[in-house]
Amino acid sequence: MTEPIISFRDASKVFPGGRRRPEVRAVDGVTLDIAAGEIFGVIGYSGAGKSTLVRLVNALERTTSGSVVVGGTDLTGLGEARLREVRAGIGMIFQQFNLLSSRTVAGNVAYPLEVARWPRAERDARVRELLEFVGIADKADARPSQLSGGQKQRVGIARALATNPRILLADEATSALDPETTREVLRLLQRVNRELGITVVIITHEMDVVRYVCDRVAVMEHGKVVETGGAYEIFSSPKADVTRRFVGTSLRDRPSDETLARLRERHPGRLVVVGIDEVTGSTRAITQVLRDAGVDPAVVYGGITEVADKPYGSLTFELTGPDDAVDAAIGRLRAVTAVGDLGTAARATEGRD
C-alpha cells in the first residue's frame, strides 16, 4: 500500500453520559490506514460508529484518545485556525444533500469559494468547470427544489470539489437514492477518484456500494473495526460474523431454509452449493467436471455478480447419479472451490462440508 493519507492510531471517541443516558463509546480503539488515491469503504449497521469515525477525519469530532493523522498532520490538539487549513483539503457530501434552498445550483457550488475569497472571475470559471464535470451544466440557474435526488447529489459533489480537496468524504451519500441513480452517483465518484486523483472515503451500510466501487473496506461493529481487506477478499472470504451477514444480504445467492425446502420438493437429487470465483472458472467448466465424474448436473438456484471487476457468487446444483459418482464429483470440485453439500430430500445432510 502507498503512503497513507489518513491514519488512525488507537483512536477513540467517547460521548459522556448524563443523568439519564449512558456513556457512548462511538469509536473504540481504531487503528487503520487509508492510502492516497484509493476508494475506501467503511461499512457497518446503524450505530456501528462509522459516521463518527469519518467526522474524526475533518475534526468535526475530536478524538477522546489516540490520534488521527491527515496528510501528514496530526489533528490532535490543533487549534481552530490550523484545523480550517486542514479542512480546506477535505470535501464532504451527505445523505440529505445539505444544499442551500435560497441559492441556485451555481450559487451552492460557489459558496465555499466565496468563503475562501476567490476572485469573482475565477469563482465563476470554477463553478462552470465543476457543473460540466458532474453533468448538470444546464441546471446552473435552477433551485434545489427543482432537482431530482441524483441531481442534488451531483451539486453536492461539485460543491465538495470546489476548493480542490485531496480527500472526499461521502457519508451515506447514496442512501436516499434509487438503485439506478445510486449507480450513476457511484460512477461519478469513480471519475472523481481516477481523473482527479482524489482519495474517496465512503461511509455506507449497503454492501452493494462496496461491491460496486470500493478498492478496500473496513467493517465496523460496536465502534470497533472488526475486519479490513480488499473488496473482493471481504466478499469471497469474510471472517467476522457481521461481515458474513452483510455479504449474504448483498449477494442473495444461497437458498434460505424456506427456499431449500421448496427446492427439495421439486428436485429429489443431491443438492450442492458451489462457490464461483476467479479461480473456479466458468459455469461451463464446472458442469464439465461434474459430467466427467459421471453425474448429471442441473443449476437450480444461485447468482453471480462482479466484485472489483472479478466474478463472485455461488450456484446450487442438483446432482443426479450413483452416490459414489456424486461423492467423487464433489471431491473434484472441492479441490478448486468451496462446496456445501445440502443432501437430498430423502436424507438431508445440511452442512456436510
What percentage of the residues does DSSP assign to strands (E)? 25-35%
Structure classification: alpha/beta
Distance N terminus to C terminus?
A: 35 Å
Instruction: Count all strands and give the number.
Output: 15
Rg over CA atoms: 25 Å
General form: elongated
What is the chain-wise order of helices and strands?
EEEHEEHEHHHEHEHEEHHHEHEEHEE
CATH architecture of the largest domain: 3-Layer(aba) Sandwich
Mean pLDDT: 90
How many domains make up the coordinates?
2
Bin the helical content.
25-40%
What is the CATH topology assignment of the largest domain? Rossmann fold
Q: Which runs of at least 5 residues are low in confidence (pLDDT < 50)? A: 349-353
CATH class term of the largest domain:
Alpha Beta
Largest sheet: 6 strands, mixed
- Lateral strand order in the biggest sheet: 6-7-8-3-9-10
Give a short synopsis of this structure:
The protein is an alpha/beta fold and about 350 residues long. Helices cover about 35% and strands about 30% of the residues.
